[in-house]
Specification:
Layout lengths: L1 H5 L2 H34 L16 H8 L1 H4 L2 H25 L6 H13 L2 H12 L4 H8 L16 H26 L3 H9 L4 H12 L1 H16 L3 H6 L9 H11 L3 H28 L1
Helix pairs in contact: 2-15, 3-15, 5-9, 5-12, 6-9, 12-15, 14-15
């Protein structure tokens, strides 16, 4: 303590900063960077999780890029990517309405954002009951006299991904809603007042004030939608386990590594997904820099 007090203020400041930063940095290196490094290392081996590792070079990557089985599942991601446009459209619609003075404004904000706060496992089980035969959705359709539209929502390969993408819309729409609402709220109110004086209605205000004002946020959400669609895992894994044509690339990666014991190949698939996400992130940062 005596030696510490003899240090200059600048030296003491550096010691304190280093001391408080040491534990978080060690935890970050141990639980983030070290596993990523090991993942890269495993991707060049044929390790099955138990036997000795044998270096196989880029054989795993050749398998990933040449075997249609591994890249064909990316077509499932298209359902989630398309669903993102509906998700963002609904979120933007409600964010625009609630940016004005309406009754029960805070109540509706909470209702729209609440699904995003729920645990993904709970949502998966909720929608399993919702989509099951003679479940909630079938009961509603029957009560409305639309029995001819009742289908096997999670058993039909033609519509299973549409059902799962719809679940994803319900869960993540609240996040987009909050982002859009914050961006719209940052627009100067005097611009709206000037527009109203000039005779602009609500549609004109949305088209010429709100949409240009949040253009960057919309663009970033579209780019993030790509990585979100590629990394879809929680909802399809819980609800279907990837069956009936609902397997995503992440589910396939997990099954390859832990179900079939191909840790090396699964690590290579994880590296490929990581590189794709990095490319999307670079695109995002480039867009922000340009704006």
């Amino acid at each position: 303590m005596f030696r510490f007090s003899k240090l200059s203020y600048s030296a003491q400041r550096r010691v304190v900063i280093f001391s408080f930063s040491l534990i978080p940095v060690v935890l970050l290196l141990t639980f983030s960077y070290l596993p990523v490094f090991n993942m890269f290392q495993y991707s060049f081996t044929d390790w099955d999780g138990f036997s000795e590792m044998e270096f196989v070079g880029i054989e795993n990557y050749i398998t990933i890029f040449t075997n249609p089985e591994y890249f064909s599942v990316f077509k499932v991601s298209l359902y989630y990517f398309v669903a993102t446009f509906f998700q963002m459209g609904i979120a933007l619609y409600f964010a625009t309405i609630l940016s004005y003075q309406v009754r029960f404004k805070n109540f509706f904000k909470g209702v729209l954002f609440f699904p995003f706060l729920l645990n993904g496992v709970a949502i998966g089980f909720m929608f399993l009951l919702f989509f099951r035969p003679e479940g909630t959705l079938d009961t509603i359709l029957h009560a409305l006299g639309l029995s001819e539209y009742i289908k096997l929502w999670l058993g039909n390969p033609d519509i299973i991904n549409i059902s799962l993408a719809g679940t994803s819309i319900w869960r993540y729409m609240g996040f987009n809603f909050l982002i859009f609402l914050g961006a719209i709220s940052s627009i100067d109110k005097e611009i709206y007042e000037a527009a109203e004086i000039d005779g602009a209605n609500k549609w004109h205000q949305f088209r010429y004030i709100i949409l240009p004002g949040i253009k960057m946020i919309v663009s970033l959400n579209l780019i993030l939608a790509i990585s979100g669609a590629l990394s879809a895992f929680e909802i399809p894994y819980i609800m279907t386990g990837g069956s009936n044509g609902s397997e995503t690339f992440v589910i396939q990666t997990v099954d390859t590594a832990f179900k079939y014991g191909k840790i090396g190949l699964g690590s290579g698939m994880a590296v490929v997904l990581l590189l794709i996400v990095i490319v999307v992130t670079v695109m995002q940062r480039k867009l922000v820099k340009e704006d």
